[in-house]
Automatic annotation (TrEMBL):
Keywords: Aminotransferase, Pyridoxal phosphate, Transferase
Official protein name in the record: Aminotransferase class V-fold PLP-dependent enzyme
InterPro entries named among the record's database cross-references: Aminotrans_V_dom (IPR000192), PyrdxlP-dep_Trfase (IPR015424), PyrdxlP-dep_Trfase_major (IPR015421), PyrdxlP-dep_Trfase_small (IPR015422)
Domain spans labelled Aminotransferase class V: 24-304, 329-425
Species: Paractinoplanes globisporus
Obligatory cofactor(s): pyridoxal 5'-phosphate
Entry's Gene Ontology molecular function annotations: transaminase activity
């Protein structure tokens, strides 16, 4: 089999037994039973890390540190020194913002896009409109447009980048349109600016928000040549609470810490006059970290491979071969793309419905039914057993750019465990809701 054995995959989860049609996966995915049980399996050796000489502490520390290796391998990062952990994508992006804060010079600019989730817009708005002005520095925030299909306008992006562009912040995939900017082109555009960074490089730094890209694509941070890349594990089968920031090692070395405190300092090297930072990546691990969450999140990646291939990486700490990661993500990508194409075809057969975004997309479809509130649609879907999300999905800028009033849509989104039946049930439920509406409006038209 070179696709997915979906029934086998589903047998690892509890939600099917509850009869749920889980089609809100772009918000968060479901946790497989093994990961929930892993918390309990870790309990006998429960201890803090880097803070004890007991066998339990050494064992937990080894597992915690090995988690960074798994994540580095998943991203094809050179080593764990480039991997830092936060609560989620949002906190990871804020960490970049705060650690670069002092480097911005009066007259610099940050270039981002109208496709961004608020996590990759509001921190830069805060930096440029709130924080730096109070420090007497003017830094402009420029936003690149998208086209009629929700694809990033690369020419417009290029026109915004100049020699004062310190940073380009771009989504890897829009959580509203599902469109995926060509990151190689975005890198070229960021390079062309030629900004003189304090590290000696002459180009804009590139930060990619991969929250919607990571769940269905193999990410290769070296091939992408990104400076920063963030994603959240709760969209990749792990329980809530852990996000990753990959950053190039020399940038982390050079950067100010994001948070100050215990464990991020070199052991014993704190005096009344000076403080020395710990080695990477621990320089970015201030205070007791989310130890169990980190271990379980890294194991989620190993389990993901086992769910798709006949392997047994889960529970171990050995190297994760690149070919396995690529194969697994290619299969997940194909399966979820098929479901998404089926969903779009089904929805588009309805003349009272508009879908947003291009053909080639991540596994989500946002839509509106003419004359109906997307919130009412999501609630009506829920009454029919189909889980959806209504709102702006934190892609407020894009909803506003489309002139949607209220700035909202209803969204269905798929993961590796979804079936063709899930899609058909969702499409049928939408058809009923839209049909009910059109019958009423046709009647009103006849009467009127
Ligand atoms: C594109 C994108 N960026 C960032 C986020 C924020 O992720 P988190 O809530 O885990 O910080 C999301 C979550 O929906 C997202 O879709």
């Amino acid at each position: 089999m070179n696709g997915l054995d979906v029934p086998r995959i589903r047998s690892h989860f509890d939600f099917p037994a509850a009869g749920r049609v889980v089609t809100n996966n772009a918000a968060s995915t479901q946790p497989p039973r093994e990961l929930v049980e892993l918390f309990r399996r870790l309990a006998p050796w429960y201890e803090n890390v880097h803070r004890g000489q007991s066998a339990a502490s050494r064992r937990t520390t080894a597992m915690f540190e090995a988690s960074y290796d798994t994540i580095a391998a998943w991203l094809n990062a050179p080593s764990r020194r480039s991997v830092t952990m936060f609560r989620n994508t949002t906190e990871a992006i804020n960490a970049v913002m705060y650690s670069l804060l002092t480097e911005f010079r009066d007259g610099d600019n940050v270039v981002s896009t109208l496709l961004e989730h608020n996590s990759n817009y509001v921190p830069w708005h805060g930096l440029c409109r709130e924080i730096l002005p109070r420090l007497g520095r003017r830094v402009e925030l420029r936003l690149a447009r998208f086209d009629a299909d929700g694809r990033l306008d690369l020419d417009h992006l290029a026109s915004l980048v100049d020699e004062r562009t310190k940073l380009v912040c771009c989504t890897g995939a829009s959580n509203f349109f599902g469109s995926k900017p060509d990151l190689a082109k975005v890198r070229e555009i960021a390079d062309a600016g030629g900004y003189p960074q304090p590290t000696g490089e002459r180009r804009a730094l590139l930060l990619v928000d991969a929250a919607q890209l990571a769940p269905t694509s193999a990410l290769d941070v070296r091939a992408l040549d990104v400076d920063y890349l963030a994603f959240s594990f709760h969209k990749m089968l792990a329980p809530f609470g852990v996000g990753v920031l990959y950053a190039k090692e020399h940038l982390l070395d050079h950067a100010m810490p994001f948070l100050y405190g215990g464990d991020m300092i070199a052991e014993g090297r704190v005096t009344a006059e000076s403080v020395a930072w710990n080695d990477l990546p621990w320089k970015f691990t201030a205070g007791t970290p989310n130890i169990l969450g980190t271990i379980v999140s890294a194991q989620a990646l190993r389990l993901l491979v086992d769910l798709v291939l006949p392997t047994s990486f889960f529970g171990g700490a050995g190297p994760l071969p690149r070919v396995a990661v690529e194969e697994v993500m290619a299969r997940i990508g194909r399966h979820t793309a098929d479901l998404t194409a089926r969903c779009m075809a089904g929805l588009r057969s309805n003349s009272h419905l508009v879908t947003y975004g291009p053909e080639r997309r991540t596994p989500l479809v946002a839509f509106n039914i003419e004359g109906l509130s997307p919130f009412a649609v999501a609630e009506a879907l829920d009454r029919r057993g189909v889980e959806a999300r209504a709102g702006c999905h934190c892609a407020t800028l894009a909803h506003q750019a489309l002139g949607l009033d209220p700035p909202a849509s209803c969204r269905l989104s798929f993961a590796l465990y979804n079936t063709v039946e899930d899609v058909d049930r969702a499409v049928e439920a939408v058809r009923e809701i839209a049909g009910g509406y059109s019958a009423i409006s046709d009647l009103a038209r006849l009467r009127g």
